[in-house]
Structure to design on (113 residues):
């Protein structure tokens, strides 16, 4: 979902303002490339890593994206946006699903779109 958001779905509003690489990667999107630099989208999926995300216009407060906010966003998505959540679960996701997911993680609702 993070790739769907950052590489397409959220490009119209999203800017990454800060990145913190975790000390250790328990999870990598492409584990067979473990000797190469990882994608920044892996940072929030590992303890101690995060991304600070804001919107281009500065209308919303910057949001921290880490393991805790990802868990929170999944629950918000399931509760408030069940159609998009079902698309995620049924492997029917797209850029819009990724955008909804990211906004749920950051702000608990869809603000843009």
């Amino acid at each position: 979902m993070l790739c769907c958001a950052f590489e397409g779905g959220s490009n119209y509003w999203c800017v990454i303002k800060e990145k913190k690489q975790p000390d250790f990667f328990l999870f990598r999107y492409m584990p067979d490339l473990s000797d190469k630099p990882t994608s920044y989208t892996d940072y929030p999926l590992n303890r101690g890593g995060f991304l600070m995300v804001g919107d281009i216009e500065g209308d919303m407060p910057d949001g921290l994206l880490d393991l805790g906010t990802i868990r929170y966003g999944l629950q918000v998505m399931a509760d408030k946006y069940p159609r998009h959540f079902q698309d995620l679960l049924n492997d029917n996701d797209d850029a819009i699903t990724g955008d909804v997911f990211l906004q749920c993680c950051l702000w608990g609702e869809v603000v843009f779109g």
In short: Strands lie at 14-20, 50-55, 63-65. The first strand starts at residue 14 and ends at 20. The chain has a mean pLDDT of 90. Residues 2-29+39-107 form one domain.
